[in-house]
Design brief:
With about 350 residues, the chain is α/β, with parallel strands linked by helices. It has 15 helices and eleven strands. The longest helix is centred in the N-terminal third of the chain and has 18 residues.
Length: about 350
Amino acid sequence: MSEEIERFKKDFDAIIYEIEKVVVGSEDIVRDLLIAFFCNGHVLLEGVPGLGKTLLVKTLSKVLGFDFKRIQFTPDLMPADILGTQLILESDSGKREFQFVPGPIFANIILADEINRATPRTQSALLEAMEEHQVTIAGKTSKLKAPFFVMATQNPIEMEGTYPIPEAQLDRFFFKLNVLSPNHETLKTILSRTTGNETTTVKRVFDPKVAHTRVSEMRLLVRDVLISSDIEDFVVNFVMATHPQQNINGISRTIDGNNGEDGNNGNDIASRFISFGASPRGAQALVLSSKVMALLDGRANVSYEDVINVAVPALNHRLVLNFEAEAENIKSEEIINNLIDEVRKG
């Protein structure tokens, strides 16, 4: 298995190398995006306009060599604009018959741009596709191409005229990644690459004839990584600790780190700030992404650090915070990091 792990690392690093020829200053985002891809999950990117979110997923499709479609979500977008529709066409013989015209969802890599600008009805059109990798139109079910990967984007600051993504759909995203503004050096590099005559080209990492097979092999290898019972218990305890009714060995979890004697008192971090905790999908995302982290470190078994390193992107969109958290400007990332410390102590 050591040879397979080494090959996985080599291919993973080659993909990152090609993407970073075009996308600057987003090393962690690129890594996490690929982790989700090889775990057969989907990603929600949140960031202000102009940070290269669209460029990132377009470059990913070029490097992997898969079909790419971009869907611009707007308030007037309809489900048929995503999935496709049945048209009545007349044949040469004069006979009229229905013919299905597939929508942009029938591609390998989908960019759902500004997903929160579409109505809930249109957003929900992605639900079956993301979960089941199939769509049902006029009673007929059609399988989507494999691999199938959705990357959605949303703008966190311009909320007028938007429709927040329902929790049921948020839970179907494997990771939620926050794209930050570039620092001085990164912005300078961006300017030097994009304001001159030089153009940067990327090359395919996989031979087109074996690309689908190679991605399938890498995804299967992820699931072959071992995880001990102790680390599984750690994942379960951590996910359960995100629920207000759960306690860690009867000790409360507080933002400032001060523990109370009674796990049900008002200082309990979950009880104070969380309305609903992470779902079983959150635990699955933690385990699978931890396995990729282990492979990237050359190991065939998951460590505690692997779980900790992916906790925020795997769970930050799965915690439903209450009004008190909003009033005190408590973020889900802060709660997750505090819960990790307490679960490790327990």
